[in-house]
């Protein structure tokens, strides 16, 4: 992909599910790619430069100054004071070196809104601990003068080679005839992780800034989606059971910009997401043959 010429992309948290998928995809472009890992023995393509971190601001400072990225994508967890201070440090370095900073937030950054469609025009407002952390990180970007992109999404689906994903764990439980208990009232719009990464490649290539949502064009409650997934793989949907708790949580991130920017390329249904799961070779092993 010539459009990646002269791009130097540093992925923070390269051994995470999404981080690994992004590094793998970037490795097939003309970009120079590096990733950071902490306490991980994941094997990456030889073309990827890997930095071992000490989970400190000073260590990341040295990595960024050494690699000289034009783009930083942050998939790090660390929802604590140290993680927040590192985020602030990256913003400072992005300003100093004219870096496009892409921050993986969450639709939970909007869980403080009630009875409101979660559009990209909304600034962060949260009541949950994880959402509050993400919201605070977003606000640091709002008030900065750097080139920034915030990614918000709810539950992504799929598989990765080096760690169990939510789909693999779910199917393993069903295969062992275990009951999966699910809260009522958790509504999301789910897409495949690979589709999100494809979209992220477009955002990097085109240097898109601002708040960007990823998600399917429709949505469903968690137990409905999981029952459909169970049936698709040949299991009894009754293995997915509701508990008494009604959480009443709206996690539907409406992705208007991706639809507009890329002519509907990313406008998919949750049924398309489910079918995509069935096409993943590693998950096909769980399919019951009748």
Number of helix segments?
10
SS elements, strand count? 12
Mean pLDDT: 95
Main sheet attributes: strand count, strand direction, barrel closure:
7 strands, parallel
Which second-level CATH architecture of the largest domain applies? 3-Layer(aba) Sandwich
| Rg estimate, integer Å | 19 Å
User: Which residue ranges are poorly predicted, with pLDDT under 50 across at least 5 consecutive positions?
Assistant: none
The tally of structural domains comes to 2
Strand content: 15-25%
CATH class of the largest domain: Alpha Beta
Give the CATH superfamily of the largest domain: NAD(P)-binding Rossmann-like Domain
Report helical residue fraction: 25-40%
User: Whole-Å distance between the termini?
Assistant: 43 Å
Question: Structural class of the secondary structure composition?
Answer: alpha/beta
Order of helices and strands: EHEEHEHEHEEHEEHEEHEHHH
CATH topology of the largest domain: Rossmann fold
Looking at the structure, what is the overall shape? globular
The order of strands across the largest sheet is 3-2-1-4-5-6-10
């Amino acid at each position: 992909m010539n459009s990646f010429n002269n791009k130097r992309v540093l992925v923070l948290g390269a051994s995470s599910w999404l981080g690994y998928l992004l590094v793998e995809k970037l490795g097939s472009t003309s970009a120079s790619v590096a990733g950071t890992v902490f306490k991980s023995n994941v094997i990456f393509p030889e073309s990827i430069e890997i930095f071992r971190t000490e989970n400190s601001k000073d260590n990341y400072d040295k990595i960024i100054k050494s690699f000289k990225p034009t783009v930083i994508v942050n998939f790090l967890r660390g929802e604590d004071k140290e993680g927040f201070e590192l985020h602030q440090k990256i913003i400072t370095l992005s300003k100093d070196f004219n870096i496009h900073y892409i921050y993986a937030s969450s639709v939970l950054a909007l869980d403080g809104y009630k009875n409101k469609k979660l559009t990209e025009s909304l600034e962060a407002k949260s009541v949950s601990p994880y959402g509050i952390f993400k919201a605070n990180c977003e606000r640091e970007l709002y008030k900065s003068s750097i080139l920034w992109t915030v990614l918000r999404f709810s539950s992504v689906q799929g598989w990765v080679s080096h760690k169990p994903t939510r789909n693999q764990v779910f199917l393993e439980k069903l295969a062992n005839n275990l009951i999966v208990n699910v809260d009522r009232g958790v509504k999301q719009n789910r897409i495949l992780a690979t589709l999100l990464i494809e979209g992220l490649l477009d955002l990097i290539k085109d240097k898109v800034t601002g708040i960007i949502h990823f998600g399917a064009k429709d949505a469903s409650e968690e137990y409905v989606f999981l029952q459909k997934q169970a049936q698709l793989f040949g299991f009894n949907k009754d293995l997915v059971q509701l508990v008494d708790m009604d959480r009443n949580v709206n996690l539907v991130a409406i992705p208007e910009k991706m639809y507009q920017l890329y002519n509907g390329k990313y406008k998919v249904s949750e049924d398309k997401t489910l079918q995509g799961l069935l096409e993943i070779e590693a998950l096909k092993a769980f399919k019951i043959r009748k």
